[in-house]
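User:
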Amino acid sequence: MRIWRMVCLVGLLFGRIAPTWAQPLAFPGDAVSAMKLIGPDVGWVVAYGSFGDHLYWTTTGGAQWNEITPTPAARPLPHIAAVFFLDSKTGWALLATGDGDQPQFKLASTTDGGASWTTNDVTIPGINPANPPDAANISFTDSLHGWINFEGGTVAFGFGALLQTSDGGRSWGEVPHDPGVPGSIVLVTPSRRRSPTRPGSLSRRQTLTMPRRWSRNSVPAPE
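Assistant: Predicted structure:
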């Protein structure tokens, strides 16, 4: 009898604290490839749909979605390789066009939440045409200063190509002493950035006087 009472008590306790979930929201896209909330109710989603990748925007916590794809009339639509929004108005989307083995990249930028976009070509210096990048990550600290890290290769032999801009993405240049590793970028301030590490690596590189020198910080392996 005591065991039965304990089981009933545990059941009542977990029944009271169990989380409740809202009903699934209707979404206009098909397969979601990337998404991020930049506020309690504001965020974006990249989803594959008719003719290619679409970019959607919500200001209602996902209850309603508006399409803000940078080139909605293109057929096929460019692949949206990366998206970054600084706030609800200012954002960038990296578009990949052309043959999958020889992609060409353009950066679309907006200052009105995706209502209008401006595009600029992005050239990657020193990339082997026989081994082009197949992914990228974008990060900005403000409306002018940002970085793109292109990556490609395999898990064991991946490479990265880090570019920087100081004019909001209109032009891009190489980062001196680029560590050349794939992965995401974490920006703290325009003069302080953590760079990615190779898959499986337990080290992290960080620039303190961006981008003149790098220091390597060891990250202990979990026990």
